[in-house]
Amino acid sequence: MSIITLTSDFGNLDYRVSAVKGKILSLNPEVNIIDITHEIQAYNLIQTSYIVRNAYKHFPKGSIHIISVDSFYHKSRRNILYKADGSYFLAADNGLLSLVFFDIKPEAIYEITLNNRFDDVINFTSTDIFVPAAVHLANGGLPEVIGRKIKNAKELLFPKPVYNEAEKMIIGEVMYIDNFGNIISNINKDFFEAAGKGHENFTIKFRNLSLSKIFSSHTEVVSEWNRETEFHGQSAAIFNDSQFLELTIYKGSKKNGARSLFGLNVGGNIYIEFL
After folding, report:
1. pLDDT over 70 at 162, yes or no
2. Is the N end or the C end of the chain the one with fewer CB atoms within 10 Å?
3. Beta carbons within 8 Å of 43's beta carbon, 6+ residues apart
């Protein structure tokens, strides 16, 4: 059974998500439709790339991923299909897919030509372009039938941390805040270890706070499980399951997690000073 996933900034209140699912099923009632999320902040490509990048890898190869973020139709903007890492990804040519695959070269890129003749009426990109293209692929169709191969799509630069060698300091920034209020930075474990080679100690600095240890998981924060409740609310830094540095409050939530207690927002700086 073919799998089509949906990611959007539509939210779940309006009709749009249901319309997309209904159109898929009207074309192929056997398709397995999986929601990744519809709670992306409007037009937020960095947030979208982080979520999609960490979700799609768990789906079978050959899955088809519709990403409807900043996707409203305009005749001057292309809609594209990436064949990458063994699966298909459909999105507007707004730079999003270059963020998802900032370190992976796509096998092929296509401009979707389905329904883009001068007399075609496009009311809603997701139902009128993405869904027919995705169902065509789900039915075993070739991408060349619905698109023309192109060499490049729009590219955006993924914000990368920098290492100031003179000050022995990594300068990173917040790129995502999750549903528990955890703050995810763009500093990954490999970059941290390369920059800190030869240094035994370090201090993570943000706003007027600091931490001097990085755990490997949230539960590692608890040193004695028979006293686990006493660790609720403890601040910590970890390398999360995506190997990015994360600032967290143990058992925190959206209301009382790291974001609210540390006062950091997306784009805020995080510094790691090696001693």
Report:
1. yes
2. N
3. 9, 69, 70
Q: What pLDDT score does 266 carry?
A: 93
Identity of the residue numbered 6:
L
Half-sphere exposure (Cβ direction) of 189: Cα atoms closer than 13 Å: 12
Query: Cα angle at 222 between 263 and 271, to 5 degrees?
Result: 35
Mean pLDDT of the region 155-167: 93
**122 compared with 88, residue with greater pLDDT:** 88
Torsion of CA 124, 104, 2, 121, to 10 degrees: 20
CB atoms within 10 A of CB 219: 12
Are 6 and 38 within 8 A, CB to CB? yes
| Residue matched to tokens 């065509």 | 136
Contact between 236 and 215 under an 8 Å Cβ cutoff? The reply is yes
CA–CA separation, 79 and 33 (whole Å)? 21
With CA atoms as reference, report the closest residue to 257 among 207, 184, 170, 172. 184
Instruction: Give the residue, 53 or 159, on which the prediction is more confident.
Output: 53
Burial class of 8 by CB neighbour count within 10 A (0 to 12, 13 to 18, 19+): buried
- Which pair of structure tokens corresponds to residue 257? 């997690």
Answer yes or no: is pLDDT of 143 > 80. yes
